[in-house]
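Thread: Newbie trying to understand structure tokens

Hi all, I'm a second-year student working on a class project, and my supervisor (Dr. K.) asked me to get a predicted structure for one chain before our next meeting. I've only ever worked with sequences, so writing a 3D structure as a token string is new to me. If someone could post the tokens and maybe explain what I'm looking at, I'd be very grateful. Here's the chain:
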Amino acid sequence: MRGKRYLAVTVLAWLTIIVLGWYFIYDQSRMERAEAQHKAQLASIGAILYAENCVVCHGPVGEGVVGPPLNVDSFRADPDENREVYDLIHRTIVHGRPGTSDPHWVRLGNGMWASYTAMPAWGEEAGGPMNDLQTAALAHFIMMGDWNQVGRHIPAPAPWIDSATGQVMWDRMPDAVGIPAEASQRGKEIFVNRGCVACHTLGQVGGYVGPDLTKVGSWGLDEEFLKQWIKDPASVVERAPRYWSNYGGPYQFPVLASHGSDALRRTTAADEIGQTGTQGFGERADGTAGALPDFPIPNTQSLPPTTMPALGLTDEEIEDLVYYLLNLK
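---
Reply by user tm_fold:
Sure, no problem. This is what the structure looks like when written as tokens:
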């Protein structure tokens, strides 16, 4: 009798161990699935936020233009497993990066362009519009989201056709500075008729896929580069901006002109805190051109392909369009 009881107790004990073990394994698996689902939901929310706020500087697939590329292997990781990358991305979203308030490009000594354009602070704690959940969602999207989700969430373009009259609202597009009125009108017509307006904002009209070109003439671009960019975008990707304000390389923030001096200095990490300077790399404090520094310009990774298509403009159309764009201030 005792043997049977002992056997029953033993069997019951083993059954309890098995059940508890199975429950632990199942519960652990359930928690992991719930955590993975939570991260995926955050990334989906982040895709919408990215489409609504970040595309014009970083590109619809994170290829980078005014701002640095975000669709890069070094950023792709599990946010929990690579906290260093997550903290870098999240901190940047919350606090932004220093630079010029309007886009500012400078051609470097190696022929590449640098964009020293400020990134605004997006986090509420730094005066931005996004709460903690939203900034976390953006960081999750950049690290693990599907870049193909972005396009469907980009806001519709601001209309350039008057719905009542069916006429193009030319007066909502800026006139270029210092060129004949007919040259401005010709530029506007090419911009609209050739489809540029579907992706780029110009004044009060246009799309939000590419950069806002309302003041593109003040960016610092030269005629040759802009013509080639319009004619064959894919051919100039490797000559597009490869360095960004406080992004990568030894620069951190771009080399700034020392106030009241012709000398150029390199900003230190301590200087970057609260830095809001507007002098760009290669400029003196008075705004005149300065010499490039003599320290080496670092190599950077290749950029993702541009999403801008070749629109098939004639050489004459490109000439007229660039003439107009470079005089938008």
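A couple of things are worth pointing out once you decode it. The beta strands are 105-107, 113-115, 201-202, 205-206, 241-244, 256-257, 264-265. DSSP finds eight helices and seven strands in the chain. Feel free to ask follow-ups in this thread.
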